[in-house]
Amino acid sequence: MTTTNKKFTQVGRVQRLFGIYIPLKKVPTPKRYVTLRFCIKGTIPSKKNDFYSENNVRFVITKAKQLHGYTEASLKYIRDNTRSWIRGSERYLKWCEMIIPIINVQSKFWSDKYDIIYPLDNVSIKCTYYFADNTTLDIQNKSESVYDMLVKAGILLDDNYRVMYKQTNEGYNCKGEIVENVCVVDVTYMIYE
Length: 193
Description:
This protein is extended. Strands 5-10-8-9 form a 4-stranded mixed beta sheet, with helices on one face. Strands 1-4 form a two-stranded antiparallel ribbon. Helix 1 (about 55-70) packs antiparallel against helix 2 and helix 3 crosses helix 4 (about 140-150). The protein folds into 2 domains: about 30-50 and about 90-190, CATH 3.30.1330.70; about 50-85, no CATH class. It contains 4 helices and 10 strands. By secondary structure, the protein is of the alpha+beta class.
């Protein structure tokens, strides 16, 4: 089912807030809901906080010296060939390699139980974090890592608002009750047919 076939009901009232027009909410009205629960153990790395910048300056300078020596042509070569880019988090990529096979086993369980075909495109998601220590963590960043991983694993079509209607996050300090962090991800799939 494509997102263009979503049925919705307009809810609320038209209002102005600080001089800005606020339209009615468009709340989905599916025929039924199915909630899939995924469980993730361990630390979820924040994909957003671990980006770093890389460039090819050293390689280009070495190549420029070999080709042109210390000349004006060497400077032009460096200027024309130097590039910078943002590299993703190594911790996040390693975590994805480790967690995606586990998520795929769990997704197969739900697929067999409810006859679901992935990727899903009409969902709301709730991430509940149970932390094993007193460390203060940003659950929004962790949730973004979870959403991106679910897309990478083929569970979700995308992590934009057209696919993920609503996102909710909760966090609890469970020091003394558990020895390892746990995240429970409830993916509620809306079925319109």
